[in-house]
Automatic annotation (TrEMBL):
Name listed for the protein in its UniProt record: Oxidoreductase
Superkingdom in the source lineage: Bacteria
Boundaries of every Gfo/Idh/MocA-like oxidoreductase N-terminal domain copy: 5-131
Database matches in SUPFAM superfamilies: Glyceraldehyde-3-phosphate dehydrogenase-like, C-terminal domain (SSF55347), NAD(P)-binding Rossmann-fold domains (SSF51735)
Lineage, highest ranks first: Bacteria, Pseudomonadati, Pseudomonadota, Alphaproteobacteria, Sphingomonadales
InterPro entries from the UniProt entry: Gfo/Idh/MocA-like_OxRdtase_N, Gfo/Idh/MocA_oxidoreduct, GFO_IDH_MocA-like_dom, NAD(P)-bd_dom_sf
Organism: Sphingomonas bisphenolicum
GFO/IDH/MocA-like oxidoreductase domain span: 142-270
Length: 374
């Protein structure tokens, strides 16, 4: 089977997420990084191409040059992966779609809700596949949790608690990765809520199968002089009447990457933590507690399909990321990939950010989460 050739925009020297995308895309042998416009600086783009070990002629000075040159090749790229700061997501996706290329984008979809709505229109008009790397939906036990809830293991869902504490921006935002995240011109209208709050929001909806209909947001820029929020608490109401709490923070000293979801229903509850991703705790209403582990024989088909190693051989972040790329490869080959986040999830997430930021600024209390066009 011929590997799908991937082009990448962003991911140059000093980037964190670019190498992650490359490793994840290539892990299962279905995709190969073939070309890139890795930096707005041509020399740095060439340097990145050398590090990625691609043909030097295919490390381009900018995206337009890459799209034009690759379109003229018999072995041109089959899709574009976007790994830039948020403000460049829409123009990169727009250019790729216009060139007839599918798009895999880092989250969030865009920098603003209006941009996300424009992107949705472009994706639908193009007919090209579009996906977002909401990484945590790729974990086998997250998919198992989703399947068990859908099968009624917890009964009607009553309460959802999702939290994502980090501490790396508790002080001065120094370095390439920190600086763009606290800059409204590059990050967009949300800081912490746009960087990690959307992960928590997507995870809550993905695992439960429910949709948030209302929210009560309290966002703050805790570090003096910071223009964007770095700490968020959002109360949620879901379409089945369940209540929820979403907490995301980047000023929680001592926390690393503490994404954690708990879901409680009439007949039980479940608990999953990103930092210990190979165990899913299921609480039964009769008092029993069951520990479901990655690789267990009793896992459902979605979790088994996302698992590469036998039980006891831990899989984590890179493998979860790779599951999304493998799903995307299947989509490009004409196979179904129903768990892969797409443009509709991207618009919902941007509506969540925009609604929470605006409601918090007005101290508006409970407000509806409205999705334009739905």
């Amino acid at each position: 089977m011929t590997k799908l050739r991937m082009g990448m925009v962003g991911g140059g020297p000093g980037a964190f997420i670019g190498p992650v995308h490359r490793i994840a895309a290539e892990l299962d042998g279905e995709i190969a990084l073939a070309a890139g416009a890795f930096s707005s600086n041509a020399a740095r783009s060439r340097d990145a191409g050398e590090r990625y070990r691609i043909d030097p002629a295919r490390a381009y000075a900018d995206l337009d040059a890459m799209l034009a040159a690759e379109a003229a090749r018999d072995d041109g790229i089959a899709f574009l992966s976007i790994v830039t700061p948020n403000h460049l997501h829409l123009p990169a996706a727009k250019a790729a779609l216009a060139a007839g290329l599918p798009v895999m984008s880092d989250k969030p979809a865009t920098a603003t809700l209006d941009e996300a709505l424009e992107l949705r229109r472009l994706v639908r008009a193009s007919g090209q596949p579009y996906a977002l790397t909401y990484t945590y939906s790729g974990y086998p036990l997250v998919r198992e949790a989703r399947a068990r809830i859908a099968a009624g293991a917890l009964g009607k869902i009553r309460k959802v608690v999702v939290e994502y504490p980090q501490g790396w921006l508790a002080g001065e935002a120094s370095g390439k990765q920190a600086e763009w995240r606290v800059d409204p011109a590059r990050s967009g209208l949300g800081g912490c809520i746009g960087d990690i709050g959307v992960h928590a929001f997507h995870l809550a909806e993905f695992v439960t199968g429910l949709s948030v209909t209302e929210l009560f947001a309290d966002l703050a820029a805790v570090v003096p002089g910071r223009a964007l929020d770095d700490d968020c608490t959002v109360l949620l109401r879901f379409d089945n009447g369940a209540r929820g709490v979403l907490m995301a923070s980047q000023i929680a000293v001592g926390e690393r990457n503490g994404l954690h979801i708990r879901v409680y229903g009439e007949n039980g509850g479940l608990d999953w933590r990103q930092e210990t991703p190979n165990a899913l705790t299921l609480h039964h209403s009769d008092g029993r507690t069951e520990i479901i582990q990655a690789g267990d024989a009793a896992l459902g088909p979605d979790a088994r399909a996302a698992t590469r190693t036998p039980g006891g051989h831990p899989e984590g972040y890179l493998e979860a990321f790779a599951n999304l790329y493998t799903d995307f490869a299947r989509l490009l080959r004409g196979e179904p990939a129903p768990l892969l986040p797409g443009i509709d999830e991207g618009v919902r997430s941007m509506a969540f950010i925009a609604t929470a930021v605006e409601a918090s600024a007005r101290q508006a209390g409970w407000v509806p989460l409205l999705i334009p066009g739905e």
